[in-house]
């Protein structure tokens, strides 16, 4: 052992050190001593000799323990190491694999992303398309509403068709927006499609309406029909066809009803058939016209009901309705015409015919307010004209019959019975006419029809009479006519004529009367002499002697006491006292004028009458006063 | 009887005379209606027509009596002469007999009317030149000799019809202006102003009378 010397040395030092040091303060030493106490139990030489080896042995043993322990640790570490190496290996693998996987997934991801994008795009598109479909394409229900169900061949119409049509129209309008937003082709396609739908639907609506328009008074259908008509108004041609169809059917119905009213009457004969009373023309024609006047407004009402939802502002619609109503009324024209004409031909009484004429006039006007123009208006106008003509003809006939024989005027020179009768007829007719419409014309015609032949007859009669009788007879007739006509208006011209004619006759009569007076009083020669101033003094002329004049004055006196005696007997036959007075006065005026001339002549000294006061005691004024008493 | 809506100053009475069939009624019709009336019936007694004309700015109503030409009505028609201011004496230029009777018509007229009555001779049917039987010259001479106004006219074409009526009216109006015609005489054939109250039967006829006895 090489370390021995050192050990000795160290030991020496240690001994020193131990000696030097205070052992109780050294912790390590204390520990070591403590340890030593565990195995060094007996302080023997042996023990002391062995101590060392024992310690070394102990140290060896501890080291060996250490070694064994470390060996175990080393083995454990080796195991750990191996594990870690394995792990590392695994990790390496995994990393590689991950790397690969990563490479492969990248493509996949890209694809997924693309798909996802497409998916969302598609979803948006789907929404757009759905919205488009919702907005621009009709649903099957709507299509069925529009076109009817194909399988069922169902032709009935429900109110849905109108909703659908509204939608079609709306889509059509929306297409314009679509077009503005740049989808021209699409918009045009849709529009075309909608137009097509609309056309077919309207066509279908038209057929249906045409079939059902007759039932406008059927409450269940009214709504649909009227709505349909409002739709069809967009297609004037179809609209017109429906109206035409309606007219045709109503025309037939109206004729049927008319004929029924005429021949069968109401249900169970109440009211009685109009023709039951055909024997009374007035009642008959009244009933017929009243019926028409009631029936036509109902037709008009129904017609307006049919189009109540239509736009009435559209030009021509009102005209179209009016034409339609005329067309409906066309059917009744023929039966109406036949019947009224029959009545007109059968009746002969002017008064009845005039009443019928006025009836036709009144109802023509009344019906004309409901339906303007058309065949009915023409027919009524014709009937009116015909009845007016027939009436005037009948009146003429009546007048001619009354005047067929030229009667001699009666002895009293009053109008003959025929004339009095005709004047009564005239008064009757005028009384009626003065209350009718268009009376001025009627009265003119009636007066013309009666008066002209009457005046001619009177002239004929008068022409066979001596002048005085003629004048009196004419005056009496004129007076009767004047009295009759002066009660009515519009007679001025006639009255003027009668007046002028009377004046002429009064002139004649005055002249006759004056001549007769002059003759009775022997004034003729006196007057002639008075006119002629070439003979010198009047008293010297034969016929103008005072004695002769006294003769005249005697007659004049008797005239003054009984003026009526001097009148022509016919003057007293004048019906009008005014005429009579006029004639008398004017005749006396003539007499007075001559007397005045005579008076002046007698009192004129150049005529050499003695005592003119004894010859002519009366002044012309006296005479005037006496005669006009 | 009201004066109506007419506003006129005078009424002139005319009479149309002449043989049967010379066209008296047609002349009247042409004048009042401005139309020719073919196949006009014979006048029975008298017919009557009126028209308002204007002379010298005055409105005048013509009351025209169209008399029957037939002899049997002479008694009736004579009544109408008396009040006439104008007499249109008509003959037919194609029938000489109607011309030959003029002097008897003229005598009647002169006897029955007052001296101031304007007599106008009308040769009617002058459209029938081919059938003329009376020359214009001889008729004109007849008219001049008797102091009548004269014109040839045609009721068919209306030629000179208006003139004859209007010329007569002018002449009558002239007489009034000259004071020759007494408006208040019953037989003057002229009435002043429409209807003095109760115009008619008794027109004031105080003075005039001479003619009344002369018949």
UniProtKB/TrEMBL annotation, chain A:
Coiled coil: 84-118
Residue ranges of the TM segments: none
Conserved oligomeric complex COG6 N-terminal domain sequence ranges: 36-148
Topology versus the membrane: Peripheral membrane protein
Position of the signal peptide: none
Main subcellular location of this protein, as a coarse class: Golgi
InterPro entries: COG6 (IPR010490), COG6_C (IPR048369), COG6_N (IPR048368)
Top-level taxon in the UniProt lineage: Eukaryota
Gene Ontology terms: cellular component: Golgi membrane; Golgi transport complex
All copies of domain Conserved Oligomeric Golgi complex subunit 6 C-terminal, residue ranges: 184-626
Localization in the cell: Golgi apparatus membrane
Keywords for this protein: Coiled coil, Golgi apparatus, Membrane, Protein transport, Transport
GO biological process per UniProt: intra-Golgi vesicle-mediated transport; protein transport
Cited function: Required for normal Golgi function.
Family: Belongs to the COG6 family.
Subunit structure: Component of the conserved oligomeric Golgi complex which is composed of eight different subunits and is required for normal Golgi morphology and localization.
UniProt name for this protein: Conserved oligomeric Golgi complex subunit 6
Automatic annotation (TrEMBL), chain B:
One GO term of the biological process aspect: defense response to bacterium
Biased composition (Polar residues): 193-215
GO cellular component labels: cytosol; early endosome membrane; phagocytic vesicle; recycling endosome; trans-Golgi network
Catalytic activity: GTP + H2O = GDP + phosphate + H(+)
Chief place where the protein resides: cytoplasm
Region annotation Disordered: where it falls in the sequence: 189-215
Subcellular location(s) of the protein: Cytoplasmic vesicle; Early endosome membrane; Golgi apparatus, trans-Golgi network membrane; Recycling endosome
Enzyme class: hydrolase
Cofactors, names only: Mg(2+)
EC numbers on record: 3.6.5.2
Record key words, sorted: Acetylation, Cytoplasmic vesicle, Endosome, Golgi apparatus, GTP-binding, Hydrolase, Lipoprotein, Membrane, Methylation, Nucleotide-binding, Prenylation, Protein transport, Transport
Molecular function per GO: G protein activity; GTP binding
Transmembrane segments: none
Membrane topology type: Lipid-anchor
Family from the record: Belongs to the small GTPase superfamily. Rab family.
Family matches, as NCBIfam families: small_GTP
Name recorded for this polypeptide: Ras-related protein Rab-14
Organism: Ignelater luminosus (Cucubano)
High-level lineage: Eukaryota, Metazoa, Ecdysozoa, Arthropoda, Hexapoda
